[in-house]
Amino acid sequence: MYKPWGKKPALSLSALTLLVALSACTSSGGKKGSDFGSLDREDQGTLKVAYFDEQAFFSQYGNAFQAMFPNVDVEVVSTESIFQADNPEAELEKLIQDQHPDALFLSEDQYAALSKKGMLYDLDAAVKQDKFDIDSFQPSVIDLLKQRGGGKLYGLSPTFSSQALYYNKDLFDKYGIPYPSDGMSWEDVMKLAARFPVKKGSDDPEAMMKGDDALYGLAQSISTSNSFDLIRTIGEAKGLLYADSDTKTVSIDTPEWKSIFESVIAGYKSGSLTAPSTGGGGGMGGMIRMAGGQKAISFGPSTMRFMQGQAAMAVDSPMIMSMMGKMAGATVAVKKGGSGGKTADAGPRPLGQEINWDVVTVPVDPAQPDVTGSVELDNVVSISAASENLPLAWELVKYVNGEQLAKTSSKSSPTLSSRTAFKNDMGGKNVDAFYALKLNEQSLLQNLPDGFADSFGQMADEQIQKAVAGTQSVADTIKSIQSKGQDLLTKAMNDEAAAG
To answer: In Å, what is the CA distance from 271 to each residue of 218, 265, 303, 371, 492?
Structure first.
């Protein structure tokens, strides 16, 4: 399961902007030691919080936390420079060393990296002493936190993201095709997509927003950046690894992978699958900063197809639920190409429409139908291993992950609450589909050098496009990806070793 370690935040469309940002925390003052759960309103101290944006922190957490502890001085240190650095991991470690943080709001990959280096505090003692109920959390969230923490719990995540299969009921009814159901295999979903009388739409975003009559069986995920992503996702569901640093090999030229390549490439050719936009955002679209701000997701015309009523299904995150609710009746100024590489404002276009939709569980492997590799942590709140104010830092971790905030957020946030008692009902939709599957721990076993997954995906995309265009056979495409991919892996491992 690949996720970039850290990306520079980007501006989001005004109609889709979601509050929050990446964070990390620092502190001094308050009771020392490890007497967890002993603080009250009269306690004094200083808690430094390194967060992406000071105003965002106080709006989301700081004001309420200070109301609970009015004598605690909360200071915020911006972490925006992390995204501007050539080496964000080193920049974050430097911030921690210079500012001596107590509590940190981290992305999933930052959490894993700092856990591995022993820079985070094991929360086991705090959880037990304060009798903090983690049994009320989504099991896959706790499992993922422990997996990414090397077997220990170094943080808690108030929200998470997973995927489900969205479907347009009206399109299924119109063509007399049965609705998808929970636990379908990828093969069954691909066959279902192929049953629709597909018609490829224009790649021009302005034409799409005018409402062309395109129809696709399955739209790509909002996070899809290249044509290999879907192939990789299906392979991971089956327990396949395309590359591994431990064995120093790329393993894409196998009968199992070939079957997936053939199915997906056939879908691209026929039009039953939407083709992802190059670079993710491409054409019409934009960037959305996820709740927590740790990652910014680009989206393009492919993502818009389902929300425009031009795709029968889409495998995607809860973000789509929120986007469809916000987009109905909204408009966006579509940008189109101009002279000299500039863009011109094509004027407002309708952004979305009312869709009669619901969701079922994300497609699975029949051999292990109760697991998924799509679970991700939006943000992780941790405590620095060097903190001298453990009880005060724990109070912040506990508040951010507490029942009160979960209850409030469930009424106003599109994210999935890690506390299962506070699921957002999303207007009566089957939100349980996002919670139903357990964590596929095998999907975390793939060990890859930094940057390799991106370069491999770009290379594979170029080869897949040749197969889609008919200028290269699927067999030759796989052989080329195997050869070029092995070269990329060898180089990435050598570069990593040289860097120490």
So the answer is: 9, 10, 15, 29, 35
